[in-house]
Design a protein that fits this description.
By secondary structure, this protein is α+β, with helices and mostly antiparallel strands. Helices cover 28% and strands 22% of the residues. It is built from 15 helices and 24 strands. The strands form seven sheets. A five-stranded mixed β-sheet has the order 4-24-23-20-19.
């Protein structure tokens, strides 16, 4: 178990130049295909002279130039490309020394990997951020109301707004949660919402992550790396700070403690060092000032959770769990689980401990349920979505299946239960054999798939081996809900580093960028 410090309060910072710190960051990797013909872009005479986003909307330039990015464009164009490349060559060693890694179990040769960090930031205007902030808050409110309903009166199912079989037959639906009221009606305490920008510059939601969303540690570390390595790029710019996440998370979790507990003890429950996100677990425990525990560090006595310490057993009132439902409690779920705590779910049901996120939230971030989110928002809130969905076909429905099969070579097909980009088939880029295999899978198990048009994701200038080139990006802002919903200003910008790739997931070769919200 580890004890950490409490972070600084949130604020807006005006980054000022300081003596450079020898901390090397980079954005090495492959790239999107070069455009057949370079157009005179007027993007600069230095680093950006050859940069051409082609047909895609560019986060730095927009279509005709963005006023809020002008200072960064000018400063970036004056930076020496050779120096950027020298820093890129040292990046892997420096990041690995810092322990900023994730784990890839499918790779026998390299388990621990760094998350490549591109030195060119992604910049969001205040206007864009307000839409993201309000839109995510709206979605989180609707998700919590949806979960409250499906585990109680199930009115939305009775009214036919969402098909009952889609929810009740979902692998992530937990009948054991029926009739249980979590504190403040909050099921989704931490949410990561994947947002993309299309070729018209419009922001839309690609996916909701309401179980155990990961990646926030990289948001904060990316900022620290950027401010130390490139203070001149950010000098005098009003960039919203990201250092308040740990305090906000601790505050929100403390607000949902069991009734009658004035100063609840919060702990972070991790599967352990072999988990792919273990670096993040350590980081967040430190930022929250909370103990980091594994299942073996906790016991349940008289339906109360106790933590083993050098002073003996001490009570735990709130658990930020980074363990999936199935492995939480071998008495309630998988009997072969060695990661969880026997009796934990019963203590939870009796109101003696709060679990964040709540058990059973997985049904809300199912890719098929995602397709109904606009209707869910209107049903519970009486509002139109602030952030629209990407158009989605539900293959469990005959019309959606037929449309998908008829246009298979034009659509992106996704299995509803997978994460990290696994099983995704991009029709326009798939070969005949892949399309044939996908068609057979769709016919055999249509309920397991959705399809979407291939969104022309926006691009951002990215440092690669050949210079600065466009790469596709998305954004995952993080929301914390306690008494209210708060968003970390910025979020994780993921970048598809491989040439031609639209998949930004780290396990599929993606990297990340620092995300600047201008106040």
């Amino acid at each position: 178990m580890r004890q950490g410090r409490r972070p600084k309060r949130s604020r807006v910072i005006f980054a000022r130049a300081k003596p450079p710190f020898r901390l090397i960051v980079s954005g090495l990797g492959g790239a999107m295909a070069q455009r057949r013909k370079r157009r005179p872009s007027g993007h600069g005479n230095g680093t950006l002279a050859r940069y051409d986003p082609g047909e895609f909307y560019c986060e730095l330039f927009g279509r005709r130039g963005l006023s809020h990015t002008r200072h960064v464009r000018d400063r970036l164009d004056r930076l020496d490309l050779a120096m950027l490349r020298r820093r890129a060559r040292d990046a892997e060693r420096e990041l690995l020394n810092l322990g900023i890694t994730f784990t890839v179990y499918s790779d026998r040769e390299a388990i621990d990997r760094i998350l490549p960090f591109d030195v060119i930031p992604r910049i969001l205007s205040r206007k864009d951020w307000r839409q993201i902030e309000f839109g995510v808050q709206q979605r989180v409110a609707a998700l919590n109301l949806f979960l409250q309903d499906i585990y109680h009166g199930q009115k939305i199912l009775a009214d036919g707004v969402v098909p009952a079989e889609l929810v009740l037959g979902n692998d992530n639906y937990r009948p054991e949660m029926c009739g249980f009221d979590p504190p403040k009606g909050t099921y989704v305490h931490i949410c990561g919402t994947d947002i993309v920008r299309n070729e018209k510059g419009r922001l839309c939601v690609l996916e909701d992550n309401a179980r155990t969303p990961s990646g926030v540690s990289y948001v904060i570390e990316n900022r620290h790396l950027m401010m130390r390595a490139f203070p001149d790029l950010a000098a005098e710019m009003p960039i919203a700070d990201v250092d308040d996440y740990g305090r906000q998370l601790s505050k929100a979790l403390g607000a949902v403690g069991p009734d009658g507990v004035g100063d609840p003890t919060v702990a972070l429950l991790s599967p352990g060092v072999y988990n792919s996100a273990y670096f993040e677990h350590v980081f967040l425990a430190r930022e929250m000032g909370a103990p980091l525990v594994e299942g073996q560090d906790l016991v349940v006595e008289d339906d109360r959770v106790l933590m083993k310490t050098i002073r003996g057993l001490e009570p735990v009132h709130v658990i930020y769990r980074r363990i999936d439902d199935d492995f939480l409690d071998p008495k309630a779920f998988r009997r072969d689980s060695t990661l969880g705590v026997p009796g934990l779910f019963e203590a939870y049901r009796k109101g003696n401990v709060t679990l964040a996120n709540a058990v059973g939230t997985g049904v809300a971030d199912d890719k098929a349920v995602y397709a109904y989110m606009p209707r869910i928002i209107r049903y519970y809130l009486g509002e139109d979505p602030i952030l629209p969905n990407v158009e989605t076909n539900i293959c469990r429905e005959p019309e959606g299946l037929k449309l998908t099969l008829d246009r298979l070579d034009q659509l992106v097909v996704k299995p509803v239960g997978e994460a990290g980009g696994e099983g995704v088939v991009i029709g326009p880029r798939a070969g005949r054999r892949t399309l044939s295999e996908t068609r057979a899978k769709l016919k055999a198990d249509p309920a397991n798939f959705i399809s979407q048009p291939m969104v022309k994701l926006s691009v951002s200038p990215t440092l690669v081996a050949d210079g600065v080139e466009p790469r596709h990006v998305d954004l995952r802002p993080f929301a914390i809900t306690g008494d209210a919903t708060w968003l970390l200003p910025g979020g994780l910008t993921r970048v598809a580093l491989r040439r031609g790739s639209l998949i930004v997931n780290s396990s599929q070769g993606g990297g990340s960028k620092d995300t600047w919200v201008l106040a």
